[in-house]
From TrEMBL:
Gene3D superfamilies: LmbE-like. It comes from Blastococcus xanthinilyticus. InterPro entries: GlcNAc_PI_deacetylase-related, LmbE-like_dom_sf. One of its GO terms (molecular function) is hydrolase activity, acting on carbon-nitrogen (but not peptide) bonds, in linear amides. The keyword Zinc applies. GO terms for biological process: glycoside metabolic process. Keywords: Zinc. This is LmbE family N-acetylglucosaminyl deacetylase. It comes from the Bacteria.
Length: 244
């Protein structure tokens, strides 16, 4: 049977796997809002606590807990209440079997039909999107989707010790991808996206709010134009990979 050529119109459960608190909100919070509005149950899995972020002298041991709290608040703005953290060190992620296992565990727990993550490809035209942690999480998540989470013989301790059956994810949405082929119109939920972004006080308060809004709006407006949406609309874009 051939794979689908378009994303599913609706899924019951989605899992967003990103490297840092605020990653999901810059690139995908509007999309997530459209999903939760449609009744999809969304879970966030944040791989690090973002303890290497910020723009002031906040002690590093305080930054991680602060950013966890910010991400939890941001999630609520777009209808997400299940937010999980793996606690890996910010800025030092590597492609390891441990990381693949930890992501696979959550895939088997949540059993999502759709996974959203960062692209494992470097985006040469917008290098800021290609933080090494983003690339590592994107590749690790894809390896967890295929083959790890669906293979009962991969990480057998997940089944034997934790009772987590294998699970096959049907589609993966890759953000910040040079191959983006799908746009989500987020015009009607954009204020909730900004509410989520502004929850990340440690990351955005160093610049005026209007400058942040102008930058992010221009970016989303260009996304909409590139993908043929009507003038004045705003979009977030993804490369959708069918994996079932």
């Amino acid at each position: 049977m051939p794979l689908p050529t378009t994303p599913a119109a609706h899924v019951e459960r989605a899992l967003c796997v990103l490297a840092h608190p605020d990653d999901v909100d810059f690139g995908s919070a509007g999309t997530v809002a459209t999903w939760t509005d449609a009744g999809t149950e969304v879970t966030y899995l944040i791989v690090t606590d973002g303890d290497a972020g910020g723009f002031d002298e906040t002690p590093r041991e305080q930054m991680g807990p602060m950013r966890r709290a910010e991400q939890t608040a941001a999630a609520k703005a777009v209808g997400v209440t299940d937010v999980r953290f793996l606690g890996y060190p910010d800025g030092r992620l590597e492609l390891t079997l441990d990381l693949r296992r930890d992501i696979s565990r959550v895939i088997r727990q949540v059993r999502p039909q759709r996974v959203l993550t960062s692209s494992p490809e470097r985006f040469w035209e917008r290098i800021g999107a290609s933080h090494p942690d983003h690339i590592t999480v994107g590749e690790s998540t894809l390896r967890a989707v295929y083959p790890d989470a669906r293979n009962p013989f991969a990480f057998p301790e997940l089944l034997a010790d934790e009772g987590l059956d294998a699970w096959t994810v049907a589609e993966v949405w890759l953000g910040a991808s040079p191959r983006a082929d799908h746009a989500v119109d987020v015009t009607d939920v954009v204020e909730r996206k900004f509410a989520a972004l502004l929850s990340h006080v440690t990351q955005v308060s160093h610049q005026p709010e209007d400058r942040l809004r102008e930058f992010v709006t221009a970016w989303m407006r260009q996304n909409a134009r590139t993908h043929g949406l009507p003038e004045g609309r705003l979009a977030e874009t993804f490369h959708v990979v069918h994996t079932a």
